[in-house]
Structure formats: structure tokens, C-alpha cells
Amino acid sequence: MIILSVESSCDETAVALVEDGRKVLTDQIFSQVNLHKIYGGVVPEIASRSHTEVISILAERAIQEAGISRGDIDAVAVTYAPGLIGALLVGVNFAKSVAMSLNVPLIPVHHIRGHIAANYLAFPELEPPFLALAVSGGNSMIVDVRGYTDMSIVGATRDDAAGECFDKTARVLGLGYPGGKPIDDLSQGGDDTKYKLPLAHVDDNPYDMSFSGLKTAVINLAHQAQQKGEELDKPSLAASFCKAVSDSLVPRTIQAAKDLGHTKVVVAGGVAANSRIRRDFEAACAKEGLALYFPPLKLCGDNGAMIGAQGYYEFLAGNTTTMDLNAYANMTI
Ligand code: KG4
Questions:
Q1: CA–CA dist 144, 53 (Å, integer)
Q2: Which residue puts its alpha carbon closest to atom 8 of ligand 1?
């Protein structure tokens, strides 16, 4: 079964063709980073406009590169939540028009389910149940994945997402947008014990997280250094920051996996590209005897293939929709 899949929830426009949920025939991605970086973050109106400009070009290119014809497309899958509402609507309306004109089923896909499903593309043997950590620019959550379409959130951030925290910290350090990779790169030469940064503890749910205090601590350090005319040791601050984020994410995820009786841990989303988080998960999972799955870097960020992967399993579960599909800025998994 060949699914044409569409992703436009934030600042990447992506159209992919995926066979049987596991084989990527093509994954066309247009990143809008250059359009937004002068503003230091994503400007929603610019994002929507850019999605509109490139989405049909990407679909055309996908069909050409995969060497298929339109008649080979069996269904259309699309991210319908969560994300920037105007951006989501571009993808949803495009997907509707393609599904309608080809007379094939339309499959709505939750963006975070898609991030988790990126791992099915990378690991043919991977099947639920497992414990997933999804960490991106807009979301940070620990998910109990009981089946391909049966999952629930067991812990989430109470404020900023981990990626948002990376991006805001990078801005303070003058590293540009998006900030995750530059902080990761800068941290390589740093001493992660040099700056003591706060680790938030959330009282009533041991799996919930909070990143706003960490972000504020870095902002305060930068301002104090500026006021005193002191030079910050930026590589060490970046390393201490990566350690703090990792210390928030890794032990909670491992604890949740153990508590829920999972033997597999799956990490997903743009922040899963972080080298410190990857290293710490590898060590923790090895110690606890848990199998660990990280998507390759190109499948960590937003892409269309992950929507096609999850879309296949949504289709098998009967989760198709009609032409009155709407987009939603927020929606639980
Ligand atoms: O999954 P994604 O592409 O978009 C959303 O769905 O939000 O994630 C983007 C986020 C950004 O905040 C970016 O700074 C972060 O992922 N990111 C990283 C790294 N690469 C990207 N964060 C930490 N370390 C990285 N190497």
C-alpha cells in the first residue's frame, strides 16, 4: 500500500511516499529555516504562506522521484494536530484535495505519533509495546505505546518544550535559530560541571518535566556576566545546559519504562538528535538492560515519511476520515 503523506505543522513542508508503513520511496522536505532565522523564531504567517507556495511542487517532485504514477497512490495521510493552526491548515486542505481527486482514503495523523513512527522506518523489527520519549520544538512527552494506535501520555512538560528551551538558550548565547544543533556543537569542547543549573522536580507526577526555570537560569547567568563585564565560558555553559536537559529527560524516561514494565525505549523528535542525550540514554539503557531505539538524524526532525509510517497503521486500525477534517493547534496523543 503506497501512502502519500503530508506534513506542514511548523516550519518544514514535507511530502513523502511510503510503502506499507516501513519503506520510504521518497521524502521531499523544504525547510523554512532561512525565512525565519532573522526573526529568531518561527513567524506563523510566513510559515503558512511558504507552505502554500511549495507544497504542490514537493508532491509533484515526490511522484517523479519515486517513479510512480498518481494512480499508484492508495491513500493520503496528513498531520492534522498539534501545531501552528495556519500551517496545519495548508497541509490538511492540500491532502483533502489530493485524496478527493484521486478518490482514495484520507488519514489524519497526530504529529507526535508521527515522530514516534519515524523509528518504524529505521528499525524494521521494532513493534509496540514500548515506552517513547518525544522531544521536539513544541512538545516534550513520555508516552506509553501499547499498540501502533493505542497510546497515552504518562508525563509531559508543564511549561516549555525541551527544544524551545534549546532555542531560547541559543538566542541568549548569540547562536542563532534553531539553536539545538549549535548548542550541541558548542558543548563538545566544554566542561559540563562548570555551571550549576537547576533541575526541576514536579511534585504530583514523577514523569512530568519543567524547563522554564532552566531557561531563566541561563538568561540570568548571561545578564549577570554582561553586567559585571565578565566573559562567559560558552562551551562550558552549553555543556552544562545539555547535561541539565539530559538529566531531566533520561532518568524520568528510564523510570517510566521500568515502572510500566517496558523492555524497549524509543526516542523521537528534533531534540533526539542531541549527542549528550543520545550518550546518556545509551549508558542508562545498557545499565538497565533496556533496548534503545533512536531514529537516524534525518528522521529526527519534521518529515513527511514519519506521517506515512504512522498513517499506514492508522489506516489498518480503520482511522480514516471525511472531507470535513479540520486542523487543531492542540490535541492529546
Ligand atoms: O521535531 P522538530 O524538527 O520540530 C518540531 O516538531 O518541533 O524539532 C525541532 C527542535 C528545535 O527546537 C531544535 O533546536 C531541536 O529540535 N534540535 C536539537 C538538535 N537538533 C535539533 N536540540 C538539541 N540538540 C540537537 N542536536
A1: 37
A2: 270
Residue nearest to atom 14 of ligand 1 (CA): 180
Which residues have C-beta within 8 Å of that of residue 225, sequence separation ≥ 6?
231, 232
DSSP assignment letter at 241? H
* Nearest-atom index, ligand 1, CA of 161: 12
pLDDT digits (tens, 9 = 90+) for 277-322: 999 999 999 999 999 999 999 999 999 999 999 999 999 999 999 9
The secondary element (H helix, E strand) that includes residue 4 is strand 2-7
Which portions of the chain are predicted below pLDDT 70? none
Beta pairing, strands 264-268 & 291-293: parallel
**Ligand 1 contact via 167 beta carbon (within 6 Å):** yes
**pTM for the full model?**
0.95
Which segments of the chain does DSSP mark as H helices, in order?
33-36, 44-66, 85-102, 111-122, 162-172, 180-187, 212-228, 234-259, 275-288, 297-300, 305-316
| pLDDT score for 176 | 87
Strand, helix or coil at 110? strand
- CA–CA separation, 286 vs 291, rounded Å? 8
